[in-house]
Design a protein that fits this description.
This protein has 147 residues and is of the alpha+beta class. The protein is built from 1 helix and 8 strands; from the N terminus they run H-E-E-E-E-E-E-E-E.
Amino acid sequence: MRKKEIILIGLLLVLAGCYLYFFKNWEKPHIEITPSFRPPARNSTATLFPVVFTLDQAYALTSLEVVPAETNRPGVVPLPLWHLVAKSNSSPTKVIHYGIPIRGMEPAIARVHPQALTPGVAYRIILTAQNLQGQAVFKTKAIPARN
């Protein structure tokens, strides 16, 4: 009887371990970011489709940074093309348009404006909200020439 109980307890522990391994999400919660492109205004002279980032829910962001994706190598610190930080409480935000300020956030360096994006180049957006972080890679698209 004693041997049977030990085997049953061992089997129960193995099954519990399998359950935890296959069905438990061990990932730290993060911000889901979906980049998309919108058509420009009819009278716009833009050469790129405007980039819009949609978040999975509204977050009070503490930091926003857009950097070239190719510079994600050890020892290389990329210069951000757009970098905002919250000086106070930022408004909960669910949609971000590239280059348009977010209420409650300011450029990390005063009077520095977002740089223009280059068509066909991959960029990475990095967002922080309190203890959560999220990032996504996106590639810009050029607007076809109109005849």
